[in-house]
Amino acid sequence: MEKLQEIIAQKEVKGISDYFTLYRRLNKMCKEREPSYDKALNVAILSSFTSNGIKESLYVKCCALGIFPKIYVSEYKQYTQEILNPESELYQSSPNLIILFIDAMTLWGDDFFQAYRRSDESRKEWVSENRDEIESLIEKIKTHSSAKILVHNLAVPEYSPLGILENKQGFGFFEATETLNRKLREVYKTDQQVFVFDYDAFCSKIGKQNIVDHKMYYIGDMKLSLNHMPALTDAYLPYIKSMMSMTKKCLVLDLDNTLWGGVIGEDGLEGIQIGPTPAGRPFLEFQHYILSLFDRGVILAINSKNNFEDAIKVIREHPDMILREKHFAAMRINWDDKISNIQSIAEEINIGLGSLVFLDDDKLNQEMVRTACPDVLVPVLPEDPSLYLKTLMDIDDFNSLHLTDEDKNKGQMYAAQKRRKEIKKTTTDLSGYLKQLKTKVTIEEANPFTMPRISQLTQKTNQFNMTTKRYLEEDIKALAIRKDIMVLSLKAEDKFGDNGITGVAIVKKGSERWEIDSFLLSCRVLGRKIEETFLAYIIEKAKNEKAKILIGSFIPTQKNVPARGFFERLGFCALEENREGCEISEYDLNKDCPYPDFIQLIRKD
Amino acid sequence: MKRLKEILADVLEIDEASITDETAPDNVDTWDSMNGLVLVTELETKFNIKFKMEEVTSVKCVGDIKAALRNHGVVFNE
User: Fold this and answer.
1) Is residue B72 predicted with pLDDT exceeding 90?
2) Is CATH 3.40.50.1000 the classification given to domain A250-393?
3) Which residues of chain B are within 8 Å of residue A16 when distances are taken between CB atoms?
4) Residue B34 Cα, gap to closest chain A Cα (Å)
5) What percent of chain A has pLDDT over 70?
6) What distance in Å separates the CA atoms of residue A534 and residue A371, rounded to the nearest whole number?
7) Is the pLDDT of residue B2 over 70?
8) What is the CATH number of domain A2-243?
9) In whole angstroms, what is the distance from residue A162 CA to residue A179 CA?
10) Of residues A219, A238, A259, the one with CA closest to residue A360
11) Any idea where the Carrier domain is (chain B) (predicted)?
12) Position A460 pLDDT exceeds 90
């Protein structure tokens, strides 16, 4: 895989032909010898016209990200047949992502040019017919494939035979196209498998006048000019990055000339630029947008070369600052180098360097961090602060396919974590610390509201995870309805805030013998006796239902060392180690298992 | 001509020195109909011109491309 990335790095990619050239080179290499990779993605592209160029640019962009792609493109205009036939090459390519690119001209046919030979009624029929058609195609795909489906909406036309009277019609040409888009959005709003790609917004961004190269359209039925294919695939990437868990979680910010204009050490509190003036507004609005990222769950941190007292005074006291101390999960305001600061921020928050984005106006700092920590995303911040906001808005790495309540609160949770650590520093003994935290734990069986988060935790928790079994939302749903299986979620709160659902246990209930299939806890609540409380609850449940023995197993992985020996510490007796290295232990349910002190347990049975 | 040859060599992945006026889809494997359109896009971008549809459809060899470029005011120092 590194080899492929090297090839891309060597070539300066300027125009569409570079993507074609690189694609041929990479593809040839991969055919000779399949590269070693840990991220692979099968994509199928179904389109209603000649979409050459998508495959080539998507291939190159995936390789550049370290993803090994296999891309299948349906035969010209054959997408319906491919979708309907369960034996088709589409399904045989076992796609993880299916892109369905149907365009307005195809759906309108000749009526695209003569939309008003249809009546209002007939245009309404056009909407419902096409909606049904697209919906039934997607339903068909769903029965044969569990791939994520990305369906394009339609570019709303920019000309009408009626000109300025277009929006005076009962049910006009534009309105019909917009209505179909709206219906698609409504149908798939809560769908976890289908995502509507806003192609209309994409075209507006490029400029609808520039979308088509008319001679290419007549020569090759190309309804999107070749030049725009790389931009289109860029717009697909947030979906792909989210699917591959390659998204960023934390935004690390410089202060002087990044969050405000000027240098606090020289200009002083009154001299820096932030607030409702022409020079201050770019920073003001930049901060507003950063706060909205915080509200969708992005963790914030500071990495600034400054006297701590000078800088913190701005954050605490400047009347126009939007971002305050409570928004930052980690602050490095010192004279250390930016690289060790960024490494210690990652350590403090307990996330990988690959989850960080670093924004700093200083080109030298950018380059230093980029070179020393290649996993950190370091965007080029333009010299002109009026372009900061746009630069940040263009970063598409904070996306996710689902946004659970826990995700939305993540920024706050991490900032609260910082305050927790502060009292831990001042309190020397653990029980004194726990007493101060006033932890409240809520345990309940899985329900439709908690299932997405339960599945997400089984997918993402690596460290304190006894068996590291991964479950999709569908799997959790299927387990939860079974009488002989108990799926539990654990929610933790303390005086600093709500951590949300951070623990999951799945227990198989036999008549006398219960078995823990999964037991995990997010590492940010670990070490506060919450895990002990959770296990004590399961033991109590098993005793109440007259079970005699509780079995726990530990399957070692590269990452779950923190979980090793947990069951034994709580009084389980080690039994055996089977061939796969799985360590089994059992708990004699005649023994009592006391709940830890200072934790309030709320049972929602 | 230097720039044209560079572009041709780049898009078609052939040796610059091998390119003559007679170079054509018939004697270059990589010059298929799709790559022909890529070539058009590339030439238009690099020379900052727009071909007419008829110019694109009537091109049979490199000599024809040169003629079309000349029509758009591109000067070759041969």
Assistant:
1) yes
2) yes
3) 38, 41-42
4) 8
5) 99
6) 44
7) no
8) 3.40.50.1110
9) 19
10) A259
11) 1-73
12) no
Please give, rounded to a whole number of angstroms, the shortest distance from the CA of B76 to a CA of chain A. Answer: 23
8 A C-beta contact, residue A552 and residue A587: yes
ipTM: 0.92
Query: Scanning every residue of chain A, which has its alpha carbon at the shortest distance from the alpha carbon of B8?
Result: A17
**Whether the Cβ atoms of residue A365 and residue A254 lie closer than 8 Å to each other:** yes
Put simply, the answer to whether B42 touches A16 (Cβ < 8 Å) is yes
Domain range list for chain A: 2-243, 250-393, 428-604
Q: B37: which chain A residues are within 8 Å (Cβ-Cβ)?
A: 52, 216, 219-220, 222, 226
Q: Do B42 and A24 touch (CB under 8 A)?
A: no
Using alpha carbons, list the distances in angstroms from residue A88 to A51, A74, A194, A590.
20, 10, 21, 58
> Which residues of chain A make contact with B39, given a CB cutoff of 8 A?
17
State the pLDDT at residue B78: 57
The CATH architecture to which B2-71 belongs is Orthogonal Bundle (1.10)
Residue A353 has phi, psi (to 5 degrees) of -60, -30
Length of chain A: 605
**Which of B38, B51, B57 comes nearest A20 by C-beta?**
B38
Residue range A531-586, pLDDT digits in tens: 999 999 999 999 999 999 999 999 998 888 889 999 999 899 988 777 678 899 99
A67-123 pLDDT, tens per residue?
999 999 998 788 999 999 999 999 999 999 999 999 999 999 999 999 999 999 999
Contact A368, A358 (CB under 8 A): no
Q: The dihedral of CA A466, A472, A476, A479: what is its sign?
A: negative
CA atoms of A192 and A452, how far apart (whole Å) = 10
pLDDT at A378 over 90: yes
A428 pLDDT exceeds 80? no
Closest CA to A337 of A310, A360, A311: A360
- Whole-number Å distance between alpha carbons of A61 and A272: 41
Helix (H, G, I), strand (E, B) or coil at A313: helix
CA distance A541 to A90: 48
CB atoms within 10 A of CB A201: 12
Question: Angle A72-A77-A81 (CA atoms, 0-180°, nearest 5)?
Answer: 80
Q: Which CATH architecture has domain A428-604?
A: 3-Layer(aba) Sandwich (3.40)
Q: Give the residue, A437 or A272, on which the prediction is more confident.
A: A272
d(CA A41, CA A213): 31
Instruction: Report CB contact under 8 Å: B10, A21.
Output: yes
Distance from CA of residue A8 to its chain's centroid? 26
**A309: Cβ contacts below 8 Å, ≥ 6 apart:** none
Same fold, A250-393 and A428-604: no
Write down the residue that tokens 């040169």 correspond to: B66
Instruction: With CA atoms as reference, report the closest residue to A175 among A187, A188, A162, A191.
Output: A162
Decide if A210 touches B, using CB distance below 8 A.
no
**What is the rounded average pLDDT for all residues in chain A?**
91
Report pLDDT digits (tens) over A278-322: 999 999 999 999 999 999 999 999 999 999 999 999 999 999 999
A315: Cα within 13 Å, side-chain hemisphere: 23
Instruction: Please give the Cα distance from A191 to A287 (Å, whole number).
Output: 33
What is the amino acid identity at position B14? Answer: I
